[in-house]
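Our consortium's second objective concerns turning raw sequence data into structural hypotheses that experimental partners can test. To show how far this objective has progressed, the report includes one record in full. It was chosen at random from the queue rather than selected for favorable results. The single chain below, 115 residues long, was entered without modification.
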Amino acid sequence: MRIFTCLILLLVFSSAGMSQDRSVQSSVPSSNTARYVRFYPNPATTFINIEFQHSLLKSSSFQVYNFLGKKVIEMPDIANRTRIDLTGYSRGIYIYQLRDKNGKIIESGKFQVEK
């Protein structure tokens, strides 16, 4: 079952691309949908900065998962700017999900940690 979950995550999030400035792009399909999350630097080594672009985020939550699907961080209350210390993170791809107060995914994407 865990392998199946990992494969699903791989397929779902493999389409989330990165822009020229290497900040994470949303996997939301509509081209006129606002982007809510920006990461830098990407790839990251010791820390990663997260900027949330919309005031609607006061009632949202933010989760980060490793590529095996294990939740590594959850932030129920989001500030406009946050810095995550990556000391305990392994090298690899991490997936994020921004969810509204009802649990619906508003945006998802990925970032990379290099050590």
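The partners drew two points from this record. The chain has one helix and seven strands. The radius of gyration is 13 Å. Both points have been shared with the crystallography group to help prioritize constructs.
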